[in-house]
Amino acid sequence: QVQLVESGGGAVQAGGSLRLSCAVSGSISSINVMGWSRQAPGKQRELVATIGGGGFPNYADSIKGRFAISRDGANNTVYLQMNSLKPDDTAVYYCYADLQRAAYLSPIRTWGQGTQVTVSA
Q: Which of 7, 16, 30, 79 could make an SS bond with 12 (beta carbons 3.0 to 4.6 A apart)?
């Protein structure tokens, strides 16, 4: 069974940093786009950052310049380095990956279980 396992969430004061990790486990053929979304209480889920197979990142305006997404192809892992955290960054963060289980199958978006990030003022 293919799973995305997240780690690295927690509580931090404003101005602090956290690094989230998300590892893909299970049998897959390839991984296309990987990314991170977040959902704060009472708000819609927001796409935070994505990174394609070529390693080119894209960011939401709300976190541009503070967060950095990267991926380790050898270990099927995506990271989100979060710096200069603000209370508005408080949310559950979800990773995702567009996975192909076989070369002849279309990619399927698979989500991690979510990890809580809490930033206090």
A: 16
CA angle 38, 42, 47 (to 5 degrees): 25
Res 64: pLDDT: 95
Cα–Cα distance list, 92 to 40, 109, 114, 115, 119 (Å): 6, 18, 6, 5, 11
* Inter-residue contact 37 to 46 (CB < 8 Å): yes
For tokens 């076989």, the residue is 102
User: Which of 1, 4, 27, 25 is CA-nearest to residue 102?
Assistant: 27
